[in-house]
Amino acid sequence: MSAYLAKFDEPNPSDAYQIVGYQEYANALNHLVPLVKQADEEALAAYDKIIETMPELAIYTNLSRRFNFALAQSSSLTPLLRRTLSLYNASSLKDKEDLAGAEYRHTGIGWLIALARLEHGSIELGYQKDVNPFNLTHLTTVETPAFLELLLDGARSHYWAMNMDPVTHYLLDGNVPKVSDRTALAYGRRAVLVQKMLETLNRVAGAQFTPVQKQELQSWYDNLSEVREGVSYNVYETYKAAISQQGIQSIDLKGCPPLVSGIRKDISLGRGRISLAE
Amino acid sequence: MRKSILAISLLMFGWQVAVQAAIPRDVKLEIDRRLIPAYRTGNLETVVFSGALIANQVGGALVDEIDAYLSDQSIEPLGAILARSRFSLLTQSKKVESQATVKELLLTVPYFQKQVQEVIAGELRPAIMKEGAEPPETLQGLKDALWTIHIYKNDLNNLDRTASLAALTVQTVLNSGKVRPVDREKLSYDFVASREQIIEENENRLNFETALRMLRVRLANKILEESDALDQKLLAAFALDQDFKIINDFVEQQRRGLFRSIQTPDLDFIQDTVVLAKQNHPRVFQDADLLFTGIHWWTRGRFGKGVAANGLLKGTHVKRNPAAGFPLHMPRDIPKATDPFAIDGSEPSPYVARRHEHTWSWENGGISLRYHAEVEIVAESDYFY
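Structure tokens for the assembled complex are given below, as produced in the milestone run.
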């Protein structure tokens, strides 16, 4: 029996360029951020007035409405969904379900920049290395409230979707046969993305949350760490099976850069050592 | 009363069963399981594959029943969706696997023919271009009118290409000698001759567009000089910049010998107007450029569709050349963003509420195994979970 330390290729940064929105939102930010940085109140009002007349630029929020939590009847749900509904109902960070539909609609230059920052940053986090999440050094005053709302909205939607998804639970339970390595890595990418959203929320607006809400955000973060551990476990187990085959010299891992670096770190720290059969 | 309602219900129900039963089970399954989902998700390759499969399997009255069934699902007739999908793939320079057969052409040619005839008859001509229509008097009105003309231009260009492709395909099939005389007649429309009329209509459009742009240059300049409203000045500055670039390009093309039949616009007047306006309002021009260019890119990010993964991806060619990723499929008309959870049965606009809700699931990761013989196996997938 000999010890084996896995070596990893760097992820391919050009993958991000294949995703629609990556270049486009970057170009949008490169024009709109300098514009608002040098704008006074009159200019900002003029931009908002123009954007208001363009119906294609409206943005709708409260994405968790898709789950119809407000209308769900507990009796007709599977145990997994019933548990999720119960957790959602107890959440201090729920969607604003009592609003009329029209109030989910937002327009304005701040919303435009905020959405571009969120979408571009989310692709970057999943597919690029050495990323400054959401490029906060260029976060502008006019977009900040919208950005925080979009961030929380996005994180919340991902979090509850993951909670309702059996694959998340297979990963948490270490049920390797049920999840392929590629699927596990994709789920790991999602967990990384949502954690970065939560970290950013805490960094920019930590003081705005109540202690109860902060505690809940922390619990979301911790739950996502468990999902990442499940992904790592899945990958280790897949390694073991693969490496036991004769003649394999090296194995490379490709996936979400922060996730890969986390797994690499685990292995280098001896937490994920893999043994080769003689 | 109750009896008569019951009788009518039975009649209607019985009729519906009769219609649905007429479509063979395997065709019905193909429609439900492949054609309709592919149509709804914009997977054109599958629409063509599945549509051609059905078209080659059925004929006569059965096609009408399939069209009625599709209509119940708010989908156009089989010939129309097949024709448009094939054409869209060809215009995207994408290889269409199966060649159109005679049976398929008998379905699609009438669709192409109808479109070409509509242009020739002026039915597709925008109202603003029709005789007696008053030109718009505001920047917004001119912007809307120019957008309508822009769409008409795309429609004409597409129809021109449609006519060429239809002419070529039909000729190939007719030359094969496998067409029955009765079908030969159905495929006899002269697409080559109709192209001339499409080109003529396009010149008509160009004349109209140039006149509208000249009108806008004058109005925009007036607004820049007289208005106190910054939003109007920004719109005016961007319009001036755009019109100058477009008319300059057009005059350049005329210098190279194109569009000779169209009156040359007064480029000197426009150039002088724009230069002076920029001298007087440099900041407005700079800000207008940043704002509208930024909005342009934002709109592409929001509504643009690539060629893979239901529009979420651009394709692997972009890895080799990022600049190749700029062409995207955009909505034909100016889209209106709608509530993604509105319960009115309409297609969501944009087609995904947030890209970040989907892009994480691209399974591009995996484990690659390298054997001692240097054989590499890469477990990668373009499949979205």
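The mean pLDDT of chain B is 82. The radius of gyration of chain B is 26 Å. Further analysis is deferred to the final report.
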